[in-house]
Amino acid sequence: MALLKDLAASRVVIEGVEPLIDGGRFAVKRMENEPLTVTADIFSDGHEIIAAALVTHGGEVEGLETPFVFIGNDRWGATVRFATPGPYRYSIIAWRDVFGTWASDTKKKRDAGVDIALELREGEAILEQAAESGRGSREDAKALKALRARVEKFRKLKDEAALYAVFTEAETIELLRRCGVRANLSRYPVQVPVWVDREAAGFSAWYELMPRSQSGDPKRHGTFDDVIARLPDIREMGFDVLYFPPIHPIGKSNRKGKNNSVTAKEGEPGSPYAIGSHEGGHKDIHPELGSFADFQRLVTRAADHGLELALDFAIQCSPDHPWIKQHKGWFDWRPDGSIKYAENPPKKYQDIVNVDFYGPDAIPSLWVELRDIVLFWLDKGVRIFRVDNPHTKPFPFWEWMIAEVRAVDPGVIFLAEAFTRPKLMKRLAKVGYNQSYSYFTWRNLKWELREYLTELTKEECAEYMRPNFFVNTPDINPLFLHTSGRPGFRIRAALAATLAGNYGVYSGFELCEYEPLVTGKEEYKDSEKYEIRAFDWKREGHIRDDLALLNRLRQSEPALRDFRNLEFYQFWNDNVLYYGKRTADLSSFILVMVTLDPHQPQGGHFEVPLWEFGLPDNGTVKVEDLVNDRQFVWSGKVQHWWFEPAELPYAIFRLSV
Amino acid sequence: MALLKDLAASRVVIEGVEPLIDGGRFAVKRMENEPLTVTADIFSDGHEIIAAALVTHGGEVEGLETPFVFIGNDRWGATVRFATPGPYRYSIIAWRDVFGTWASDTKKKRDAGVDIALELREGEAILEQAAESGRGSREDAKALKALRARVEKFRKLKDEAALYAVFTEAETIELLRRCGVRANLSRYPVQVPVWVDREAAGFSAWYELMPRSQSGDPKRHGTFDDVIARLPDIREMGFDVLYFPPIHPIGKSNRKGKNNSVTAKEGEPGSPYAIGSHEGGHKDIHPELGSFADFQRLVTRAADHGLELALDFAIQCSPDHPWIKQHKGWFDWRPDGSIKYAENPPKKYQDIVNVDFYGPDAIPSLWVELRDIVLFWLDKGVRIFRVDNPHTKPFPFWEWMIAEVRAVDPGVIFLAEAFTRPKLMKRLAKVGYNQSYSYFTWRNLKWELREYLTELTKEECAEYMRPNFFVNTPDINPLFLHTSGRPGFRIRAALAATLAGNYGVYSGFELCEYEPLVTGKEEYKDSEKYEIRAFDWKREGHIRDDLALLNRLRQSEPALRDFRNLEFYQFWNDNVLYYGKRTADLSSFILVMVTLDPHQPQGGHFEVPLWEFGLPDNGTVKVEDLVNDRQFVWSGKVQHWWFEPAELPYAIFRLSV
């Protein structure tokens, strides 16, 4: 009879619960104080009125109940927010509302002139059961006392109208809401996990640089102190995360030379991604950059400038990495005693070997050591990690490792540098990555930007994946920028900064650097990956002012802190992307237009979303042009705009009524 | 470390599995031998080649593996069929294909002229591991032996070409497929339930009649023998299920009279839905219909005519039902000692009381008794039950009861008579109902038929819900038929019979009966629910020939046995619905056109789906007009058709090349 009893306990159906990632296998993600609206189909047999509550656990509350509100077509919804980062979970309870059903039926009968003497006796029983239920006791013993008082009062009354009035009083209704018997209380069987992040997981502006190129002299290896000297400059542009490629000792064997040549000349610094030498591995600093004391000073000074440091976590090893001798069981050895190089046959990457996550001694010791590397740098004050090529490492490793680190500090943020197939990128986000690189870098046309952004902001992945729109990286010098000139850099900056919550710039972008190693290919010429460079950071033609403006608006306009609030609007020109973001209360309502054509003037008519303010098509809104600091009004739904890309390829407006 | 070990075991990701109803909470449904195609996203980290298998259990096989085939974008698919009704389940395993990866990489290197001596030694190790794995042993000890022989052969060879050739031989590839080590074997954690029905669950033509109206004389109560006399008539129309409203003793208290009047006159028979009197309850036969021996004879004779009997399972009781005295704890008593009548305040249904499924003594004794009623009639040869108003009874009861009955006979079919909100109807199908009444009765326009049928055949519910398209019922005399005349009846019959797998007709429909009790309302005048009627079953104006034709085509054309194969095509007239059904091999390719306008001629151009045959737009197909028994050809994609509704409001064609 066990099955029957179990089944019978679920009289009220709770199904179609959203959000729910893979049946609750993975957490829904939110930022602190970001609303989470849970919806579900909730219904029962028959005509009884039902009620339901969202029950949340985590943080400082256990079992907090938020009432569900009926939406329509058996769908219900409830909204909660979580104040601090960490793990939460939600579930749903639903029950038949005995008093509600009684009140509704009795009112109908009374309105129809039917005698309700019997109904009143049934109502009395409902009151009595509530007073005896004890459900209120945990919450409020006073409520139970008040209920008993109601029963006593009821028993002294005689007149039908007076008796009925007891049940229509607000106090009775409130007391029964709190303590009334919940008939056929049913529970959704899944405790749905929710992961709450600090805001930087979903809203951040990254600036990437190579510390060794910060001396201002290509002949002198840059140091952490050189980076410290550049902090005011970076902060002036308004960035809040400062990210370095690996800062560890670089291997000498098979070291790569300038422009990725297979052999380095004497004195060439090698790729920082060939990690490990006799000077140490992942827990060490490349000596030419400075000491741990220098690093600590940098962390502190960066924070003083409002910049948080992000480090690279790249698991591959140079052939000189200490692990190779110390931990043979962490690598995949070939019959001739060599280690498999990283390869994509017939190509080989000779300066790097990969660990074997399922090698003979790898579980758990390799996994533990890798986790400990992250904890080591966390201990040094680093709470953001950009992870190199995570899709070539096992998903279970990331899930385990990220959970372990979060148990120590729920504010640690991992960005997945996976440029791979869409389902792998989504899986990395599911297993715990807080941010993900995206395909933005290769989306230039209006239709493809709309399609991609709609997927990212409206489909299920919006519940767990937060893209970081990098406009370029040391490996990606986008083809669009090879021919776009300065207007193209401004276009891509405006798109990234206003479309996404997280976006990033690799240094040189602000100088409109675009020289490719090979025409039509994405590798930079004289890439900093293989040599030390020096730049004049304020040379003519830079776009520092655009970046500063965009970052300032991102900070001042709450609408731009959200990602999923993106809406596309109509601009009758396929070269102009037009979209808006707004807060729920419309107090921050931003419209953005970007011409996607860096060469020719473009313009056309567009729709002002008057309907979002509840205005008719001939309504009027106040407009602030946030780029040119002008104010005017738009009267009527159809307006016109014009772009001269060499002057200004984007427009940003703030609307109000 | 338990979590790490568990996680690590799932290196290959298996997600996005379809079909999967509520995470595997409910069964996917199929008919015997109907294909089940399972698709899933399957991928792993890195570049290794992976492989996967669908593993099915149930019937006569345990753990049958069907290889998955790569579709694209990390999606894989596999198709299976189940031969006999009953419970099945499927799951998925996936692994890294060590040999496949080796073979692919080694071929690339060899093609690029790279020395593969080391690779050949690794290949030898792969062969050895397979020979030692024992994975083949269960299946085939010979395979392991053959593998060992391969290893020996390999060791005697010297020449690189000869050594490499060992791995490109078909036998090696087949042996490694069967016995090769499955690296990182990962298992999808859900055993997805599949319920397999006999064909009648998804393909059936129902004919409903009131046995007491079959005497041919409204003054004489019909008997089972009168029904036997009508069997040839019914079979002539081609139906295969014969369904009766309740045949149990009818209560006398508060008996309803002619046309649903609140009090019956002396001699009026009452509604058969007021079940139970001093003559018995749900396990008894209304004496005027005959004896159990008569009933058994009817079951047998119906079967002789190719008709299977379906009974009504209506749980409500008349106030005279024996249970009311025998099982007080099965009812909801009011403070004055009365039982709550069925009511929808302020309306009351005084001839019926409902049991209380959660009453003080209801669990388990009421639930068991209700199950035993079904088992009782199953024992009398009834394997199809039409259940009255199941949505007013608890879903857990149905789930439990249907499972219990199926454990006795997996061929029992339950039809849910729930005309209620969409999610409740779907839930009933999920908890086990094999067939469901539908909204078809109220869908008359082209757009609404297309929309509804697309939901039913293409959305998730198609995996578990099988509608039964009744054209009318004793309670539903559709408004469309009040004014449509005979063409309207032919229209609705053609739609129901060709759109749905299951469809049904309530007797009188073939005579174009439509007189309502109240103009604009769906109740029949002089409804058989409250009185005995007599009809001339072959009176002028009947549409018996249409029904016979439609049912004959349903039997002869395999394409019409399927429901989910429905495709709508373009007919440039909003009054003409045009659709097709075809078998996968195109050997049965049926096109149907139905004018939805019973009054005016309609016609227009339409598209011949030449593309389904791979033909160009100017291609030619052979056409059989299955209604008029003519043959012709259509050359070119756009053709024309014309309907005179009074003559023939539908067209059915069979296409071939």
TrEMBL record, chains A, B:
<comment type="similarity">
    <text>Belongs to the glycosyl hydrolase 13 family. GlgE subfamily.</text>
</comment>
<keyword id="KW-0119">Carbohydrate metabolism</keyword>
<feature type="region of interest" description="Disordered">
    <location>
        <begin position="254"/>
        <end position="280"/>
    </location>
</feature>
<feature type="active site" description="Nucleophile">
    <location>
        <position position="388"/>
    </location>
</feature>
<dbReference type="InterPro" id="IPR017853">
    <property type="entry name" value="GH"/>
</dbReference>
<dbReference type="GO" id="GO:0016758">
    <property type="term" value="F:hexosyltransferase activity"/>
</dbReference>
<dbReference type="InterPro" id="IPR049171">
    <property type="entry name" value="GLGE_C"/>
</dbReference>
<dbReference type="InterPro" id="IPR021828">
    <property type="entry name" value="GlgE_dom_N/S"/>
</dbReference>
<dbReference type="InterPro" id="IPR013780">
    <property type="entry name" value="Glyco_hydro_b"/>
</dbReference>
<feature type="binding site">
    <location>
        <position position="256"/>
    </location>
    <ligand>
        <name>alpha-maltose 1-phosphate</name>
    </ligand>
</feature>
<comment type="subunit">
    <text>Homodimer.</text>
</comment>
<dbReference type="InterPro" id="IPR026585">
    <property type="entry name" value="GlgE"/>
</dbReference>
<keyword id="KW-0328">Glycosyltransferase</keyword>
<comment type="function">
    <text>Maltosyltransferase that uses maltose 1-phosphate (M1P) as the sugar donor to elongate linear or branched alpha-(1-&gt;4)-glucans. Is involved in a branched alpha-glucan biosynthetic pathway from trehalose, together with TreS, Mak and GlgB.</text>
</comment>
<feature type="domain" description="Glycosyl hydrolase family 13 catalytic">
    <location>
        <begin position="208"/>
        <end position="544"/>
    </location>
</feature>
<dbReference type="Pfam" id="PF11896">
    <property type="entry name" value="GlgE_dom_N_S"/>
</dbReference>
<feature type="site" description="Transition state stabilizer">
    <location>
        <position position="475"/>
    </location>
</feature>
<feature type="binding site">
    <location>
        <begin position="529"/>
        <end position="530"/>
    </location>
    <ligand>
        <name>alpha-maltose 1-phosphate</name>
    </ligand>
</feature>
<dbReference type="Pfam" id="PF21702">
    <property type="entry name" value="GLGE_C"/>
</dbReference>
<dbReference type="InterPro" id="IPR006047">
    <property type="entry name" value="GH13_cat_dom"/>
</dbReference>
<feature type="binding site">
    <location>
        <position position="389"/>
    </location>
    <ligand>
        <name>alpha-maltose 1-phosphate</name>
    </ligand>
</feature>
<feature type="active site" description="Proton donor">
    <location>
        <position position="417"/>
    </location>
</feature>
<feature type="binding site">
    <location>
        <position position="316"/>
    </location>
    <ligand>
        <name>alpha-maltose 1-phosphate</name>
    </ligand>
</feature>
<dbReference type="GO" id="GO:0004553">
    <property type="term" value="F:hydrolase activity, hydrolyzing O-glycosyl compounds"/>
</dbReference>
<feature type="binding site">
    <location>
        <position position="351"/>
    </location>
    <ligand>
        <name>alpha-maltose 1-phosphate</name>
    </ligand>
</feature>
<dbReference type="InterPro" id="IPR013783">
    <property type="entry name" value="Ig-like_fold"/>
</dbReference>
<dbReference type="GO" id="GO:0030979">
    <property type="term" value="P:alpha-glucan biosynthetic process"/>
</dbReference>
<dbReference type="Pfam" id="PF00128">
    <property type="entry name" value="Alpha-amylase"/>
</dbReference>
<protein>
    <recommendedName>
        <fullName>Alpha-1,4-glucan:maltose-1-phosphate maltosyltransferase</fullName>
        <ecNumber>2.4.99.16</ecNumber>
    </recommendedName>
</protein>
<keyword id="KW-0808">Transferase</keyword>
